[in-house]
Write a structure and sequence with these properties.
The chain is an alpha/beta fold. It has a single domain, classed as Tetrahydropterin Synthase, Chain A (2-Layer Sandwich), CATH 3.30.479. The protein has 3 helices and 6 strands. Strands 4-3-1-2-5-6 form a 6-stranded mixed β-sheet, sandwiched between helices.
């Protein structure tokens, strides 16, 4: 079994409707994400070309970079973002690091990975000391 990983970074603002502490306020993070893929087979000595992995993941990172990601139930923030004409991505979940892992796994798998890839792991650092990760088996 062989694994490779690529790291991605972006800046993004959000708030958590479900939170009773500081995270209920508008705030932002310098996000860092590691995308790891696993395979039992190598093609030309590689699990996958890093360039190809970047081409799958980077458009989703670019979509979120310097935006506010907003839960569709946050009507007040949606209205403010519209009035400010600010870059906004609307999602149907609380914008936690855990849910962002699931979001990226869904996006990456929908785009398609080579058939020999057996697992996908996404690890998202919301701060330099805090992260969430999700791993799925593909076959």
């Amino acid at each position: 079994m062989m694994k490779i990983a690529k790291e991605f970074r972006w800046e993004m603002g959000h708030r958590l409707l479900c939170h009773t502490g500081k995270c209920k306020n508008l705030h932002g993070h310098s996000y860092r994400m590691q995308v790891e893929i696993t395979s039992d087979e190598l093609t030309n000595g590689m699990v996958m070309d890093y360039y190809d992995l970047k081409n799958i993941v980077q458009p989703y990172v670019d979509e979120l970079d310097h935006c506010f990601i907003v839960n569709k139930n946050d009507e007040l923030l949606l209205k403010a973002a519209e009035e400010l004409k600010t870059k906004t991505v609307i999602v149907n979940f609380e914008t936690t690091a855990e849910n962002l892992c699931k979001y990226f796994i869904e996006k990456i798998t929908s785009k398609g990975l080579p058939p020999h890839v057996t697992a996908l792991k996404v690890k998202i650092f919301e701060t330099s000391t805090s992260y969430a990760e999700e791993e799925i088996t593909l076959r």
